Amino acid sequence: MEPIHRFIQLYRRMRLVIYRRLLRRTGQLSAADTFAADIIYLLEQPTLTQFAGEMGISQPSASYRVNELAQKGVVEKVISPRDRRECRLRVGAEYRKKTLDAPGRVEALMGELTRRFTRQELETTAAVLDAFLTALDQEEEPTE
């Protein structure tokens, strides 16, 4: 299999695993709610404006979505102690535990890889992945 096909396969497999985990473990949430919460998680405590921009929705729509998620206990609003007008968003601990931070899973996989491959092989792979991620970042459109 050509390297490009392996990257595509890796990308697709990771998406499927993540979506399966998210949707199976968040039965009380709709797929749209789960997706919105995951975007908040991935942005690492965004402002409402950043969240709206990433989702491609208006501020009022983003505010409505966040308020719904907050009522369900999925998202928390964190008021800045320096500027009380600024609010950051984060997913709650229970949501992270159930869906995203599968305790020890990544560490177990990495442990398996370090037993199977040499340090040099892992460093080469990391360099290739860094280049791949940089290329992905350069393709993205600005969200603001």
Question: What's the SSE blueprint?
Answer:
Elements: H1 3-25, H2 31-43, H3 48-55, H4 59-71, E1 75-79, E2 87-91, H5 93-100, H6 105-116, H7 119-139
Antiparallel strand pairs: 1-2
Helix pairs in contact: 2-3, 3-4
Q: What features would you describe in this structure?
A:
It contains seven helices and two strands. The protein has helices spanning 3-25, 31-43, 48-55, 59-71, 93-100, 105-116, 119-139, and strands at 75-79, 87-91. It is elongated. The model has no long low-confidence stretch (mean pLDDT 85).
Briefly say what this structure is.
The chain has 144 residues and is mainly α.
Keywords:
144 residues, mainly alpha, two-stranded antiparallel sheet, 7 helices
Q: Please count the helical segments.
A: 7
What level of helicity do the residues show? 55-70%
| Rg, alpha carbons | 18 Å
Main beta-sheet annotation? 2 strands, antiparallel
Task: Give the N-terminus to C-terminus distance in angstroms.
Answer: 39 Å
Strand order in the largest sheet: 1-2
Amount of beta strand: 5-15%
- Averaged pLDDT: 85
Count the beta strands: 2
Order of helices and strands: HHHHEEHHH
Catalogue the unreliable spans. none
Question: Which class best fits the helix and strand makeup?
Answer: mainly alpha
Shape estimate: elongated
